[in-house]
Design a protein that fits this description.
alpha/beta, Carbamate kinase, nine-stranded mixed sheet, 9 helices
């Protein structure tokens, strides 16, 4: 049975997901797989916004160049999100998904400037919108950008796609006894300092009653199953 609760979603992808098994950079086989997952739900008339991090690019640079100040580093990260966004747009358009990249940083050769009303209109016309450039300001993460954009476009939920299948009480890679949560409250996330999203993003979601789902985006059908299956997928925070 199809889940009709979510007409418009904001998908938050970490940059590390795009690098696949590489230390950093873009693995285009992974980007292609992500594009096909997104197409699967787009065909079901779900309106889709996307925010992508830049950990696959900026961390690769910063590991080789120490001493970059925070503001400069954050702008490098913002530019990295534009690179990732254009890469995903390219793969989506290869499979006939009409896609727009909208950036908080001005880079008109590659992306439209972010304007909330225009973004909403693109979504209403069935276009996938990728929000690049973070918030356009240093000191804010792409988690915060995702929460902000989701609130602005009135998304029904943020779906955070990661390499793990939900939220655990400890790192499942280091502790094989780690317990996975099926659901959490915002307060539990904050009080237990669970690293779902940064504190600013969680607070924005809490204040605006915007639920967050955390799923393993590397599992081929997880995105579709979360939206349309009765099975429990990942962890829901609300």
């Amino acid at each position: 049975m199809k889940n009709l609760h979510y007409k418009r979603v904001l998908i938050k992808l970490s940059g590390e997901v795009l690098s696949g098994k590489k230390e950093f950079g873009i693995d285009y086989s992974v980007v292609s797989s992500l594009a096909n997952q997104i197409k699967d739900i787009h065909k079901e008339k779900i309106e889709i916004g996307i925010v992508i991090g830049a950990g696959n690019i900026f961390r690769g640079i910063s590991s080789k160049n120490k001493g970059i100040d925070r503001v400069s580093g954050d702008y490098i990260g913002m530019m990295g999100t534009i690179m990732n966004s254009v890469a995903l747009q390219n793969e989506l358009e290869k499979i006939d998904c009409d896609t727009r990249v909208m950036s908080a940083l001005s880079i008109r050769q590659l992306a439209e400037p972010y304007i909330r009303r225009r973004a909403t209109r693109h979504l209403e016309k069935g276009r996938i919108v990728i929000f690049a450039g973070g918030t356009g300001n240093p000191y804010f993460t792409t988690d915060t950008a995702a929460a902000l954009r989701a609130i602005e476009i009135r998304a029904d939920i943020i779906i955070k796609g990661t390499k793990v299948d939900g939220v655990y009480d400890s790192d499942p890679d280091k502790n094989n006894q780690a317990i996975k949560y099926d659901s959490l409250s915002y307060k539990q996330v904050i009080d237990n300092e669970l690293r779902v999203m940064d504190l600013t993003a969680i607070t924005l979601c809490k204040e605006n009653k915007l639920p967050i789902s955390v799923i393993n985006i590397n599992s081929r059908n997880n995105l579709k199953n979360f939206l349309f299956s009765a099975d429990k997928v990942g962890t829901i925070i609300k």
